[in-house]
Write a structure and sequence with these properties.
The structure holds two protein chains of two kinds.
Chain A lengths: L7 H20 L6 H11 L1 H4 L38 H10 L14 H11 L5 H4 L18 H10 L3 H4 L13 E2 L5 E2 L16 H10 L15 H14 L8 E6 L19 E4 L1 E2 L15 E8 L3 E9 L12 E6 L22 E7 L5 E6 L13 E10 L2 E9 L16 E9 L8 E2 L3 E5 L13
Parallel strand pairs in A: 3-6, 3-15
Antiparallel strand pairs in A: 1-2, 4-6, 5-14, 6-7, 7-12, 8-9, 8-13, 9-10, 10-11, 11-12, 13-14, 13-15
Chain B lengths: L2 H19 L33 E11 L7 E2 L5 H4 L6 E2 L15 E6 L12 E6 L2 E3 L2 E5 L4 E5 L5 E5 L7 E5 L5 E4 L5 E7 L7 E7 L4 E3 L5 E7 L2 E9 L3 E9 L2 E11 L2
Parallel strand pairs in B: 1-18, 5-8, 7-13
Antiparallel strand pairs in B: 1-15, 2-3, 4-14, 4-16, 5-6, 8-11, 9-10, 9-12, 12-13, 16-17
Classes of the chains: A alpha+beta, B mainly beta.
Chain lengths: ~475, ~260
């Protein structure tokens, strides 16, 4: 027998070391240390979640949704029955992956042991971990995409009453979608199911099944355990996943050159050939830096096209209510950089503010369907009669929770002082602001994109004179 | 025994010890035995196997003083199934003053002085969702007594219960006729129920460890019977006006009388 040259001492040591670790390997994850977890929590988590975990950190009010109150024992994203504690893995997942669409980042920078230490510390913050042990949800098994029947999934979606909050097409515009409060007293809205990138617990069918069967404690989303067969919920999950719309996230949007009459109507078939770019919107915070309410609009899909003399912008956004009352109408604004204004683009989360530089505002409102352009240092100047304005052409349509709008603007807006001049340079900065009349006081704003105007095929420079 | 074999045996023993020392951290790891802090106290039996049967009762009523506030109308347009079930206007039930000046939906119970243990009956208390409202609006249920929650509407209701001592839950009932049974394991005054789909819906459960409670109805009166002679403290709870307590001495038979009054202020 050939003896391995490793000495016996080493062999015994190796075995003992293995056994010391075997205890935790048996557990499925490393044992967390509460004191180490507290230290890591104070360094990494307390700034949002608060010194004692009550969700009241100094930055908490800037965020919507608010950082979780970890002392309440109520956890939204679990693999367990409603009313029971989350598992250690549920807590670890939120820390490791973050919650998409919120300010909870993934904590990849922390090593595994640090994450499990935090899990151990979190469990000391609420008595629920000792008194109401986690009861895993029964998931049944994944039928797989090949055996998913979307028509059946749609029937289950109807039978379970999902549309009453999530809407017939998942656009979060169901008749009961407003007037929700979460368990911590903040307004909350049902998820827009077309936005797979925004599902807090993940957008895969398995994640959807988990949310439906476990419910989202602390929100209005109930648990369907006992109310639906898990096999039916799987079919419905594949249907819901089919509602998700893929997004091309790109800070540059190409203004495709079109010949012939410009596609002024939002449903003109020629828009089908124009690539769309997704732009994330965020609510502007108020002057105290407080982000008080959920955005009802958090995404705009943009397509741009140009003719010899015009820029056409087609935008699509979800808004749960069609608001045409002039007192509180849905509105949309496209912002451009005024000609001759120096300095970098100002963030729309800050603008307007006293002393702010002016912006070129192309604004549409649903009350009369009209659009005008001004160059001003605040949005509401667009309605002031004494402000110099240029009319714009706009066509809009609202259908089941979704606005579609085409704005047309001359590349060179004559007669409006400092109006943006498009076409002089290959890129022009562009941004958006959206108001939902049904959510007064909130304004959702985008970061700045660049629109790239496509040159004519012949390469001849276009001098827009007329 | 050669050194090799001794060391190997030690290794085997070390493995056996070491691998047994880890604590399996499955889902049930933090079970009731490992709780730190107070154990949950249900009704304490002070003596005897069962409560003495009493022959006395406490009767009374709850008056409302002052001008009753206007009742708020409920709009059910969000759900045609709800609207269609009502021929006349529907009003919130948070403050209902009866024609005789008494207050409806007041939960009255014996707060102190109950002796012995009172095991819960097995018949359920029924909480019904009908016409997109809870019936009853305020009710009592015993600790460990089944509460059967029914959906009598052809629409989705979710039963969102937010107790603070008992285990909360938020369960969907999408189908007409569905029933879900829950129990509460400790006394609590009061457990609020709401529906997120129909946000005007509201109910309250008084969870008590004995049968000595009642809810005022259209006549604003209550009767609590079966009490043994003794001194008790009664509490009246109203969802808007809070609680009031009163001591009462109950004779061996016959009845004692207690009056409560709440006022709008």
């Amino acid at each position: 027998m050939v003896r391995h040259p490793v000495s016996n001492a080493v062999r015994v040591t190796a075995v003992l070391v293995l056994c010391g670790g075997a205890g935790s390997v048996w557990a499925g994850h490393p044992e967390g240390d509460v004191r180490a977890g507290r230290e890591t929590y104070v360094r990494s988590c307390a700034v949002c979640h608060g010194a004692e975990g009550a969700g009241d950190g100094p930055y908490a009010r800037r965020f919507y949704p608010r950082p979780r109150d970890l002392t309440s024992g109520i956890y939204k994203f679990r693999s367990t029955v409603s009313g029971t504690a989350p598992t250690d893995e549920d807590l670890h997942r939120a820390i490791a992956h973050g919650l998409p669409g919120t300010n909870m980042p993934d904590w990849r920078i922390l090593d595994e042991q640090a994450k499990w230490d935090i899990v151990a510390y979190l469990k000391t913050l609420s008595p629920v971990f000792g008194t109401i042990p986690p009861e895993p949800v029964i998931l049944a098994s994944d039928p797989g995409q090949a055996r998913a029947d979307l028509a059946q999934g749609r029937e289950v979606y109807t039978k379970l009453g999902c549309a009453s909050c999530h809407g017939e097409q998942g656009r979060a515009n169901g008749p009961s979608a407003s007037a929700f409060m979460d368990d911590w007293g903040m307004p909350i809205r049902p998820a827009n199911l077309t936005q797979g990138w925004n599902y807090r617990g993940g957008g895969a069918p398995r994640d959807i099944v988990m949310r439906v069967l476990a419910g989202i404690d602390g929100s209005g989303m109930p648990s369907y355990t006992g109310a639906a067969e898990p096999e039916d919920v799987w079919q419905m999950a594949y249907y819901v996943a089919s509602l998700q719309e893929p997004i091309e996230w790109n800070p540059i949007v190409r203004a495709v050159r079109l010949g012939g009459a410009p596609p002024a109507m939002p449903d003109d078939a020629r828009w089908d050939g124009v690539p769309a770019v997704g732009v994330r919107l965020r609510n502007a915070v108020d002057s105290d830096g407080v982000w008080a309410q959920p955005a009802t609009v958090n995404l705009v899909q943009v397509q741009t096209a140009r003719t010899e003399e015009e820029l056409l912008v087609r935008v699509v956004w979800d808004d749960p209510t069609e608001d045409r009352d002039p007192q509180a109408a849905d509105r949309f604004a496209m912002l451009l950089r005024p000609h001759g204004v120096r300095g970098d683009q100002v963030s729309l989360q800050a603008w307007p503010y006293r002393g702010a530089p002016p912006l070129d505002v192309c604004a549409w409102r649903a009350s009369d369907g009209r659009a005008r352009e001004i160059v001003a240092d605040r949005f509401d100047a667009v309605d002031a009669s004494r402000v110099s304005a240029a009319p714009l052409t706009a066509q809009a349509a609202y259908e089941d929770g979704r606005w579609r709008l085409v704005l047309r603007r001359p590349l060179v807006q004559r007669g409006l002082e400092h109006a943006a001049v498009l076409g002089e340079e290959p890129f022009a900065p562009l941004a958006f602001a959206v108001w939902d009349g049904g959510n007064p006081g909130a304004r959702a704003v985008s970061p700045w994109l660049d629109v790239r105007l496509e040159e004519p095929a012949s390469g001849a420079a276009h001098a827009a004179t007329h | 025994m050669g050194r090799q074999r001794l060391l190997s045996m030690l290794a085997v023993i070390a493995v056996a010890i070491g691998c047994g020392s880890g604590t399996p951290q499955d889902a049930q790891a933090t079970g009731p035995d490992e709780r730190a802090g107070e154990p949950i106290v249900i009704a304490q039996a002070t003596g005897g196997d069962s409560a003495p049967e009493g022959g006395a009762s406490v009767t009374g009523s709850v008056r409302f003083e002052g001008t009753p506030p206007e009742r708020e109308r409920i709009r059910m347009s969000a759900d045609p199934v709800c609207e269609q079930k009502h021929q006349s206007a529907v009003y919130k039930e948070n403050v209902v003053v009866n024609d005789n000046g008494t207050l409806r939906n007041v939960f009255v119970y014996v707060k102190e002085g109950v002796q012995g243990s009172h095991p819960a009956p097995s018949e359920p208390v029924v909480l019904d969702q009908s016409g997109c409202g809870y019936t009853p609006h305020v009710f009592g249920v015993r600790v460990n007594q089944p509460l059967e929650i029914r959906n009598s509407d052809a629409t989705l209701h979710n039963v969102n219960a937010k107790p603070s001592g008992n285990r909360p839950f938020n369960l969907a009932q999408p189908v007409l006729g569905m029933k879900t049974t829950k129990t509460f394991t400790e006394p609590e005054i009061m457990v609020p129920f709401k529906c997120n789909v129909h946000p005007w819906m509201s109910a309250y459960a008084g969870v008590v460890a004995h049968p000595f409670f009642g809810v005022t109805g259209e006549d604003g009166a209550f009767t609590i019977s079966g009490l043994p002679a003794g001194d008790y403290v009664l509490e009246a709870w109203h969802e808007e006006y809070g609680t009031k307590t009163q001591p009462v001495s109950v004779p061996a038979s016959g009845s004692a009388s207690v009056e409560f009054a709440f006022s709008a202020n």
